[in-house]
Design brief:
Helix 3 packs across helix 5. The protein is globular and about 55 Å long. It has a single domain (3-244), classed as Spore Coat Polysaccharide Biosynthesis Protein SpsA, Chain A (Alpha-Beta Complex). It has 249 residues and is an alpha/beta fold. Strand 4, helix 2 and strand 5 (66-68) form a beta-alpha-beta unit. The strands form 2 sheets. Strands 1, 4, 5, 6, 7, 8, 9, 10 and 11 form a 9-stranded mixed beta sheet that branches. A two-stranded antiparallel ribbon has the order 2-3. The longest helix is centred in the C-terminal third of the chain and has 14 residues, at 235-248. It starts with a strand and ends with a helix. It has helices at 29-37, 53-61, 76-84, 104-116, 186-194, 199-204, 208-213, 235-248; strands at residues 3-9, 23-24, 27-28, 45-50, 66-68, 91-94, 122-128, 142-145, 151-155, 176-185, 219-222. The chain has 8 helices and 11 strands.
């Protein structure tokens, strides 16, 4: 198998328990994610990695494929690794279970990046920031990249720093936000998991900084599509509006 998509889905989210099963335009959030990811052309298989029987039953009920994973896994990446470990697969894509606006093209572009660039053992998605309110929102992770599209740093602060205070969009720095969709080679996924947590990771609470701090690279793929993560109940309204706008296009 070349590539598998895994959608980690945890019941006990601190800010919104059971959010992946929350109703969004008549479907659970996780079904929106599944149906979109299923349209990706580069995936040979797709599975939801869940830690609760309620999620598993709902996924199987709408025709999805679900695997029960240990409730003790500390992160979605660890849940991904549990699924991938026994499989003969080259590339694993971690698709967030609370991102109902994920696009198939995002997934395909990540898989292609890993296939085409030998230096890319891990890849993720970024988008240019168009709403200035996101610059001061610590829940929106910012990223700076080098000339070849590899990440230099991720932060909850607005980076790079706008020293002159320039407000003209043509003159001020370009800002990108990170969209939490990852692709790994299987080998690097387990290399990453075995690395001790790093100082930068602990400071910013961003696990991708562990990769950079240990000297590995993350290829970034820019997208024109925006997403709405469902982290709190009030995010459902924003996701609903965004999905309706998409349908009108």
């Amino acid at each position: 198998m070349n590539a598998i998509g895994v959608i980690p889905a945890r019941w006990g989210a601190t800010r919104f328990e059971g959010k992946v099963l929350a109703n969004l335009l008549g479907k659970p959030v996780i079904q929106h994610v599944w149906e979109s990811a299923k349209r990706a052309k580069t995936l040979d298989d797709l599975v939801v990695a869940c830690d609760d029987e309620r999620i598993l039953k709902v996924v199987e009920g709408f025709g999805g494929k679900a695997i029960y994973t240990s409730p003790d896994q500390p992160s979605g990446t660890d849940r991904l690794a549990e699924v991938v470990n026994p499989l003969d697969v080259d590339i694993a894509v971690n698709i967030q279970g609370d991102e109902p606006l994920v696009k198939p093209l995002m997934i395909d572009n990540l898989v292609i990046a890993i296939q085409d660039e030998k230096a890319a053992q891990m890849a993720t998605v970024i988008k240019r920031i168009e709403d200035d309110s996101e610059l001061t929102n610590s829940n929106v992770v910012k990223v700076v990249v080098d000339k070849n599209g590899y990440a230099l740093y991720f932060s909850r602060y607005a980076i790079p720093y706008n020293r002159t205070g320039e407000t003209d969009e043509k003159k001020r720095p370009v800002y990108y936000k990170h969209i939490g969709l990852y692709a790994f080679t299987k080998d690097f996924l387990f290399t990453f998991r075995n690395l001790p947590k790093s100082a930068l990771e602990n400071a910013e609470r961003l696990e991708q900084l562990r990769v950079l701090e240990y000297g590995y690279k993350i290829k970034t793929i820019e997208t024109k599509f925006d997403t709405v993560g469902v982290d709190r109940p009030e995010d459902l309204k924003r996701a609903e509006e965004a999905l309706l706008r998409d349908r009108e296009k």
